[in-house]
């Protein structure tokens, strides 16, 4: 249980705390934040901060593991699992709150499970499916989109531009494209496994 794995476990432990602040009704206290026409409940602000903190640890644990030669099989299992749990939990919560269309959540979560399955097939063949450029772009766009949804489109709410809606649509489209990209580039794995 080295430092990168502890950071990954901390990310997993932050998920239920984030969901508590996101889904429990705190309308009685404290008062929501008001700024002109903008309104945001304090508990949703706390949930957004926890989400950003958890999302930021993704790069940190991987960097430490590679730099200090601390890559372990446990880390290879936990790191992608933590990412999928975090994104899935927050997207399902946003659907519950009426801030995200269910089809978008289903598309994003399905892609994550499909790519995980592909990686499992690769492991059976003794190969590794490395993160692609589109996979990294997908992650960044998802984090930006989810953050904007959690923050009620702050600061773009003041100029009446629905950047949160645009960003989550972009996240869904890039997620689909990156998933297709993974399968096209690794189609020989499926052919080998069926042989």
Characterize the structure shown.
The chain has 195 residues and is mainly α. The protein has a single domain (3-189), classed as CDP-alcohol phosphotransferase transmembrane (TM) domain (Four Helix Bundle (Hemerythrin (Met), subunit A)), CATH 1.20.120. It is 73% helix and 3% strand. The protein has seven helices and two strands; from the N terminus they run αββαααααα. It has helices spanning 3-23, 42-67, 73-96, 102-124, 133-150, 163-185, 187-194; strands spanning 33-35, 38-40. Strand 1 and strand 2 form a beta hairpin.
Principal-axes geometry comes out as globular
Quick one: CATH class? Mainly Alpha
SSE string, helices as H and strands as E: HEEHHHHHH
CATH architecture: Up-down Bundle
Q: Can you identify the CATH superfamily?
A: CDP-alcohol phosphotransferase transmembrane (TM) domain
**Beta-strand percent range:** under 5%
CATH topology: Four Helix Bundle (Hemerythrin (Met), subunit A)
Cα-atom radius of gyration: 18 Å
Low-confidence runs: none
Give average pLDDT, whole number: 90
Query: Biggest sheet, in brief?
Result: 2 strands, antiparallel
Pathway: Phospholipid metabolism; phosphatidylglycerol biosynthesis; phosphatidylglycerol from CDP-diacylglycerol: step 1/2; Lipid metabolism
GO cellular component, one term: plasma membrane
GO molecular function, one term: CDP-diacylglycerol-glycerol-3-phosphate 3-phosphatidyltransferase activity
GO biological process, one term: phosphatidylglycerol biosynthetic process
